[in-house]
Specification:
- The complex is a heterodimer of chains A (246) and B (284).
- Chain A is mostly helical.
- Chain A is built from nine helices and no strands.
- Helix content of chain A is 84%, strand content 0%.
- In chain A, helix 2 runs parallel beside helix 6 and helix 3 packs antiparallel against helix 4.
- The longest helix of chain A is centred in the middle third of the chain and has 39 residues.
- Chain A starts with a helix and ends with a helix.
- Chain B is an alpha/beta fold and 284 residues long.
- Chain B folds into two domains: 148 residues, P-loop containing nucleotide triphosphate hydrolases (Rossmann fold); 64 residues, no CATH class.
- In chain B, strands 6-7-8-3-9-10 form a six-stranded mixed β-sheet, with helices on both faces. A four-stranded antiparallel β-sheet of chain B has the order 2-1-4-5, covered by helices on one side.
- In chain B, helix 3 runs parallel beside helix 5.
- Classes of the chains: A mainly alpha (246), B alpha/beta (284).
- At the A-B interface, helix 4 and helix 5 of A face helix 2 and helix 3 of B.
Chain lengths: 246, 284
Amino acid sequence: MKNYIQLNLSLLYWILIAPFTGQFFKIAPIFRQMVFIGVRAAPMVALTAFSVGVTLAMQAAHSLESLGAEMYIPDLVMLTLLREMGPVLIAVIVIGRSGSAVAAELGTMKVSEEIEALEVMAINPVQYLVVPRFLAMLVMLPALTIFGNYIGIMGGWAVCRFTLDFNTAGYVLRALESADTWDLYSGMIKSVVFAWIVITIACNAGLNVEGGAEGVGQATTASVVQALLAMLVMNAILTGIFFFSA
Amino acid sequence: MNANGETIIEVTDLVRKFGDRAVIDDISFNVHRGETLVIMGGSGCGKSTLLRHMIGSMKPTSGSVKLFDEEITTMKERELERVRLRFGMLFQSGALLASLTVGENVSLPLLQHTNKSVDEIEEIVKQKLQMVGLTGFEDLKPDEISGGMKKRVGLARALALDPELLFSDEPTSGLDPIMTAVVDELTLKLTHGSHMTAVVVSHDMTSAFRIATRMIMLGHGGIVAQGTPDEIRNSPNPEVQQFIHGQADGPIPLNLSQEEHKDHQHVRPRPFLGARFRFHHKHS
């Protein structure tokens, strides 16, 4: 825990304070990480989100049909995705795919003396390795969430359009009417917080690996488990704050 | 020994304990500008630990390490970075960044710490790689070259900023005899021509005697012998003679006991049956 807090403080120093002392972080590595962490996860996010959109619509149809309230299917799909399923599911995918990869990559660098070599070359590993990954994740997880939401809503549309009595315009209008901007923003805030949790836990696990290949494996597993738990607990807390306290 | 030269490294009463056992037990020595100090000793005698204290990666239990007249054991990370810009380090494995090409690895310190243009950096990278006999290897990844080549790239990277002081951990292990000679000659050229100071940890006795101006042999956590290569060669100490001639029989224990081994490896030992049968050849 001490290491984790230190990593966060160090990150804040390199992002918020160091640039004003002339030590600006480089931009190119951030884009490289954005491609690795974000762009390459997009197909998986799309497939998952589409399946979830379809599933939500089918479940909603099943329950709402008996009440004669099929017209509320778009509302349910839209709100569930924007507020909960979108941010949480996409964070789960990114934890499994990108978080574990970051932990394994940094862990391997640690055991092969690469991190020590950086330090001896007077290159701070947090500035050189963690800052680009952190900023990339902070941009890409919310971006992937918006993308996933969109695809998920399309999944709901596919069910409504091809199996129920909806036309495209009706679905879109109903969906747009049901949600307000706060539904989107609350999901985005969650997504940014999740990004912070996921990437700092992954980097911390990687940088503190000990004991060779076995250590890398354990750190990767630990990073996934810790990130998942922390993310789900934080989701409950944020939902409580956003939708339950007022 | 260049006793009149400026003192570059001053190690005083250095002690490092892991648990109760001192891996480094009260070691003191100085290194002067232009010298090449070779540190030798059996596996697990604390050579690498000593080196890690000299580069500031490990903090001692007690004692002091001064580089360029500055105490590094109490320094904060930021101050240490300033001192680290003045020396280069060649790691045993090369420690190249696997995600970068050979050229990018060598240019890394230049990109991070200088304001040179891309063209200038490219020129320096080419020149440094040429020094270690690797012209034209810029675009290969570390996975695509041999272990010996990685080590030479590591050396080129360590020399990228033209350091005043070079630390090398086993610079010639894994190199063929010709490449060993090339690396040795490079070290000699740099220490004689550019007044660079070198601290080399080595097992390779041929190479050690070729480059050293002074040698230290470690054992039992302390310094067993030190002196010029001639003094070491003619040392009456049987441990030194056993080591430099590579003899299996002699005063140096063949195996560490489990207790000793535990402290060296910093891992919890698992009990095993053979632990009782120590294999010590201790002559008085």
